[in-house]
Amino acid sequence: MLKHRWFAFLVLGCCLAMMTGCWDAVELNRRAIVSGIGIDWMESKSQYLISFQTVVADEISGKAGRGATPTSVYQASGKTVIEAMRNTSRKVPRIISLAHTGLIVISDDVARNGIVDLFDYLDRDSDIRLTAEILVAGKGQRAEEVVAVLTPIGKITAFALAQKIDLTSRQLSENFRVEVDDVIRGMLTPGGGPIINGVIIEGSKEGAAKKSNLESAKSDGLAVISNLAVFKGGKLKGWMTKEESRGTVWIRDKMQKTPLHIKLENGQGEVAFDVMRSKTRIEAELQDPLQPIIRIFVEPNLSIREVNSSIDLRDPHTMKILEEAVNKEVVRILKKAVEKSKRLDSDILGFSHVIERTKPAVWRELKDRWDVIYPRIQVEYQVNSVVRNSQMRDRSFKHDIHIE
Amino acid sequence: MIGYRSRNRRKAPKKDSEELELSSKTRPSVISGNMEEQLARIRTESGDSPDIVIRRLKLGGKDNCAIVYLNGLSDPQMVNHFVMESLLHVNPDLLNKEDPEAMLKRIMEDGLAMGESRAMTEWNDIMLAILSGDTAILIEGSEKAIVAGTQGGEWRSVTEPTSQLVVRGPKDSFVESIATNISLIRRRMKSPDLWLETMKIGSVTHTHVAIMYVKGKADPEIVKEIKERIHGIKIEGILESAYIEEFIQDKTVTPFPTIYNTERPDDAAGKLLEGRIIVLVDGTPFVLVLPTVFVHFFQSPEDYAQRFDIAIVMRIVRYLCFIILILGPSVYIALTTFHYEMVPTLLLISLVAQREGVPFPAFVEAMLMEIVFEILREAGVRMPRAIGQTVSVVGALILGQAVVEAGLITPAMVIVVALTGIASFAIPAYNLSIAGRLIRFGFMVLSGMFGFYGLTLGLIVLVAHMNSLRSFGEPYLAPISPFRYKSQKDAVLRMPFKTLQSATLTASASGSGKQGNRSSTQQGIGAGSGTAEQNNGSERGDGGSNQHAVAPSAEGNRNSG
Amino acid sequence: MEKVRISPLQFFSLLVLFQFGTTLVVNLGLQAGKDSWIAMLIGMIMGLLLFSMNAFLYSLFPDKLPTVYYRILLGKYLGGFVGLSYGVFYLHTASRDVVDGGLLVMASAALKETPLLIVNLIMVMTVAYVLGKGIEVLARTALIFLAVVLIIGGFSLLVILFAGIVDLQRLLPVMGEGTGPILKSVVEKNIHFPFAELIVATVLMPALNQKKTGIKAGYLAILFCGVMLAQTSAITISVLGTNITERSVFPLLTMVGKANISEFIERTEILVVMVLIIGVFFKISLYYYAALMCTSELFKIPYKKLIYPYAVIILGNSMVLSRSYSEHLMKGSKYLYTVLPVFTIVIPAVLVILVMIRILVRRMKSKSKSRSEPNSNSSPAS
């Protein structure tokens, strides 16, 4: 009995081994690893033009390098993303593998036409991660140009760009990571839309895609993270300025570090601050259901970085004055962001969620008219900044020199 | 050893056939009073082997005595000094020349300066005693013979263990002599509760097999079971304890060893203290420990010589090594061919770069390298030490590098294979690491076909299989599953000694009346001749109760006697 | 009945893995939206009540398989029929879970092109092999894999928390839609899945070696699972938001895929896939075992002889169950509140009522008897 069973198992196992072969086994050298995707719109064919930035692995590591570029771009067009992807198989000798895609660049015109169907693919596909970063190429620039750029530091441009976003959101906080699911959630926000980081090429677009870009100390062209793009639903509505971006980041409570520049009253000079950390809280007051009031509380902690003034930083009173000035400045920045979002009539700041969280019942009433209410919504700001330190010195030496 | 034929078939023929009939069928099973006849029979039966020494003596003037011993197996010192000399110095007047039986008694009582001596009548026993190195004294007219314990001969002396090394800890190891081995354990445990039972297995080799256990700690049921299983063995020869192991292990198809073996006396003593039973086999330094659980194979005597926290880390490392050993290459295959999305991007790029131009699929690559590795190891193990070094250098360095440079195998695969190889060496028990290496191939096939899905199901089957194993009734994964909280202190972890109570394994401390028939024979006899009155091959079945609490060496007896 | 004994700890781990089984995998829609974790907790409480019915029946008939006491309570033919239908029910549910597992494997980026038949085949073969070793081996294996699952779960939880992707605000407002959707979800889904499914525990209970502790372990298993499942559901929603969670075929997988710590610890989904496979394995095993025990007891066939025929049935059934995943899910959620409650709620409840009546009748009788024979003391039931 036992022997029979083992025998049966053995035979079955052998059959399996022979039958299955390896349906799903794909050797690594049969894959083309895609690091970034660029999506453009071809007016002439009214099709998507998809550019895959693929990694040329042996140029990056390994001895077999031929001195070629570390990435190469393959393009194909199609009515849908999957069609374009399949069309590349005529051009690429290997399976386009999207699992490591770190970056997806959408061109400005695609974004203006709407990204809903695009994102259904990105959401649905089991290969592409939700963690892939989304960028919108700035006005007049094409996504294919962005993915074709070569970057001197960090050989793979897509990953380098993703790192740039990470870095700038930590250092400057005028951007923050926007991933596939963030965009989808943004599109689902009633009366709102996602905000997506922008990217532009500084310098020569042609030069940026050439290998010579890697060989000169001063690059011909560089892909640079730019300001936020504002969407309503699935469509691009407009671009923010630097300050509006910063305000948006602040209201979304993604603020990490940012420099602030304050001009003191009475011509006393200027002080530059660094926000070290900041906490934002949004509340909704719904006394009158038709006139919701949004209150934004911000508590930034600051550090003094540059003093071009002779004020006495040892004096607690001076600190008070400085904090007052900072409060005003922050409110100004916040206001700019809110105004912009009102002007574009897109609730990118998530006020609807705040109302829903506070009073679900009220929200159910407001829901249908939110588009109308939003531009007229009343917003109050309350900033309470604290200057924590002034680095290694207190007074500036300017305090002690007498310039007459 | 000298073949000792024609013993199984014969079943006690009548005593009256005393003539010099050499036909094997009619041979009597007891010795007769005719000394010449007996000596002739010894010669014939052993094929007139030159190493059987027959020395005739004259006691009281007559040519009436002969001593027989096997040159090389008996201790010449003992034979010369204690047998010959004392026999020659027996006062002739004391010997009753008329009655050979009385004379024999006299010699035994007054004449022999030997600790171990006794009178025997069974022909087979005497023959066996001679072949074991004892000296037989035959006296004309007596139907008994004296067998004096003169076993000796050359053994390898106690040296450092070769298979289970420790940095800190005792440096002695078992040798091929069972008496020495018993003494090594006895020396560590001076307790009357340490009981020893011996038996002889092998219809040709008559190998001494001894089981030792601590009475009151070992489960009497298991002791009984082991004895029954050992008695049930039907084989011509036992040359290594592995023979016994294969016969007495629980019958299951499995690559896993269900019986632990050790060549370290301290290890064996430790297992005895846990309430386990050890089986010693003459002629091999490897001692079996039963019942065995999986965690034993990850314990090293070193653990008890180091601080407990360090010991815990070392043990965890060993378990980790086992996991690496069985899963290393298969995880690599699954990751690279099925789940490339799992690999961190930069690592993936470097792997892709390595794979450029490599002709084999990852699965074949892994199989090839693992097989090459097995070949290298097999070559290295069997080689003399000096050449073994060369083999490993050639194999590991030159072959590995050449294979990578030729672009046949990816460097990453070489790393993985080398890692599993090293991991296999980190497991203290050799037989478990062999099992692991075997299983590894199964997992490679599974992951080559189904990726992590196959791997997960394979793991489930593996664990279920291990759970279904038993070693003498003890579940193989014992203290972990079924979970026994009390046994955790020295299973996967090694708690400080303060908390380590003497962990008995299953039995309660009550010794139970099982060994009631154990006679009070604390006779001082060496292990060798002590078994002379054991049943031999044909009558083995009914003799389970012949037990002796045996002191290990003749010296001890001399002191007591 | 094989003479095996399961310790309470093993019983606990079997039940926990059983409940994790497909519940972690399958997404039957989030009727309760953001509050599905509350629904899960309420479902757990109902599950405890249901389990107490089974435990009560067990306390009256320890050492007896359910098929035996069905016949005692319902009579030979009706009881036999009920027992048989339980067998069929278990068998069918086992094949449903095989499909769940197979689809999970196909969809979770592991085996996209391997035929479903093969994927299911090796799963069923594994289950059959382990069951061939006996329920005790299965129970002890469960203990080890519970540890594995908990380690992986703890690790994933840490990764998710440290990755900073949890936004608890996505769970707010609590009960924004009122209690209606929650209750609806509880009734339609959360009671049955997975808690009512613990009816299979009745088949295991006779093998318990410590009756009282075993039952306690059962309650604990439900509590533990309820909390863990509620927590998982809450975390999934707070990472992905309601919408994506609701649309995901395997929300847990998608959620874990979001975790990313400094570009190194990322893409830990495969570990979660392993957990899911383990869970599905135990779920199938228990249903399979329950089906085996029911029929082998009814027809007095040694259950080991039935293992392989049943494997073929389960495999065949799993292949013809449904044509697509959505059909499978749709049928599944219908099955949950049409067929399943008959077996998990109605029949046990009827039995409990029957037993109650019996006890009452006996008491009355014994009272009337005790007037005439004061010495006789009757034991309740059996």
Automatic annotation (TrEMBL), chain A:
Domain Spore germination GerAC-like C-terminal: 227-390
GO CC annotations on file: membrane
UniProt-annotated location(s): Membrane
GO biological process: spore germination
The keyword Signal belongs to this UniProt entry's keyword annotation: yes
Domain Spore germination protein N-terminal: 24-197
PROSITE patterns the UniProt entry points to: PROKAR_LIPOPROTEIN
Cited NCBIfam families: spore_ger_x_C (TIGR02887)
UniProt record similarity statement: Belongs to the GerABKC lipoprotein family.
The protein, known as: Germination protein, Ger(X)C family
Organism: Paenibacillus vortex V453
Taxonomic path: Bacteria, Bacillati, Bacillota, Bacilli, Bacillales
